[in-house]
Design a protein that fits this description.
mainly alpha; 2 strands; 4 helices
């Protein structure tokens, strides 16, 4: 299993234990809210809309969203590393290479 969860919430554990659907469900609660909030922020503030800003905002919101899940006792694990960090690195590298 690529993505896992450690929580005391029975409902989440029941859904996560289903082989294919559980992994998709965990992926959705891990990434989709942060991505949706990123689109919403860009909708509210048109001056920060654009490809590089999307990466910057997502690089901030993904860690914050995962920290909030951690506070609510939902600990998600992807490859047992903080996968949201990879998105920040990707966004930074895209920004560096787009500056040329």
């Amino acid at each position: 299993m690529i993505i896992g969860v450690k929580t005391n919430r029975k409902r989440i554990l029941e859904i996560a234990s289903v082989p294919v659907i559980g992994g998709f469900f965990l992926f959705v609660i891990c990434f989709v809210p942060a991505v949706a909030m990123t689109f919403f922020i860009q909708y509210l503030f048109p001056s920060i809309s654009g490809d590089p800003y999307f990466g910057y905002i997502l690089g901030v919101l993904l860690p914050l969203w995962n920290l909030l899940l951690y506070v609510f006792d939902i600990r998600l694990r992807i490859f047992f590393i903080p996968a949201w960090l990879l998105f920040g690195v990707i966004a930074l590298m895209r920004w560096v290479f787009d500056m040329k």
